[in-house]
Amino acid sequence: MEEQQAVSSGEFEREPVPQSKLKSWKNFLGMYAGEHAAGTEFVIGPLFLTTGVSAFDLIIGLLVGNLLAVLSWRFLTAEVAVKHRLTLYYQLEKICGKKLVSIYNLANGVLFCFLAGSMITVSATAVGVPFDMQMPRLTDTMPNSFTWVVIVLAVGAVISIIAARGYDTVAKAANFMAPVIVLGFVAAGIVALVQLEVGSFADFWNIWGEGSEPFPGQIKYTIWHVIFWSWFANGAMHIGMSDLSVFRFAKSPQAGWTTAAGMYVGHYMAWVAAALLYAVYLQSPDVQQLLQSGQAPSVAPGPLAYNAIGIFGIVVVVLAGWTTANPTIYRAGLAFQAILPRLSTFWVTIVAGTVATIAGLFPAFAMKLLDFVALYGFILAPMGAVIVFDHFFINGTRLQATTKSFDVKVFGAWVVSAVVFYFVSVYFGVFLSYLTLPAWLACGVLYYVMKKK
């Protein structure tokens, strides 16, 4: 029954993707460019400025961190994905049992919903501009108006329906919107440079200069903060193996290189362009007054883009939010579908979209995006080490299904590595992204040692 449902849905949730359904690298290029040149970039770029980062630390840190992310996708995620062509959830089920994966899938799906919710928040700030809606502030956690609630619910409904129509629809939407979004970021960056009166590279460099004191409630970022944060911003997707669900459709592991389109167009050019928009905003008298009184100003993307490039800016922010939320909700739907295989992918994705929309009502997920992204990658990434170590050091391409429904060894490796290193972060005040790789390695090594006993 389950196998028939998987085949009829066309998403192959519980079987390898057949050769006839494989897709060329162009499908992944558009999807990654669209997903990572996205609405959240309009938040992340400005948030870097709130940490008081210097020019050298930001520009070089992003260059290195994004390269490490691309290499992780290419040589870990894509490599494993094309060998087995299974979703993350079904592959984990084969390794550690259905009951354990249900716990992991629940955590995975919920965290992805919260992430998608922050993207719905981003799009809503653009839709709200023509309605003169009060924008969420950096310190806001709750909905601040009835208009905000209505707009978030409307945006979330549209995004959820697109995501629920499956991978092909998600990929087509991304391919269609990606060029418009990229053009919008370029245009906004150029306008911001003009408004900042930048006439040379030295002027550009001096926008950040040697950095500044962080805004109230933020920590000071150095080059190491930028490198490790940008590397593991998508840690759940590459070293955490979530994108097995995407690259299982690839013809070869070479498709992993297409993630560079997302990293260097989105996580480099777009972050810098958005930071430039925020630099213009910070020069306004009202903002300077807020800073002098010890308050943190808003980082709402809609007004920032509108002030730079008008109506086109609103369109870009809305589309950017869609292209990121769509595949994120799609991934969350697959996670929930693995828990409830008798339900169609369409309906579990609608459920995921509903949860994401409710999360989008609360601005805290977007306003604290640097912290949240670091946390969700830290929690989910270690389980990816189980797949990597199983593939490269234990079973190789001969994936052997376990007879257990709950592998205590895998659960122990995941929980011990996550809890120990999270305790180190909280108790000793260590930046969480510094500990993502140690936690990932610890989980993989613990799994390997216990498996070999």
Automatic annotation (TrEMBL):
The keyword Transmembrane is assigned to this record: yes
Record bears the keyword Transmembrane: yes
Gene Ontology, cellular component aspect: plasma membrane
The entry's keywords: Membrane, Transmembrane, Transmembrane helix
InterPro entries: CodB
GO molecular function terms listed in the Swiss-Prot or TrEMBL record: cytosine transmembrane transporter activity
Residues that span the membrane, as ranges: 58-82, 103-126, 146-164, 176-196, 221-240, 261-284, 304-325, 346-367, 373-394, 406-425, 431-450
PANTHER family given in the database record: CYTOSINE PERMEASE, CYTOSINE TRANSPORTER CODB
Protein name, entry field: Purine-cytosine permease-like protein
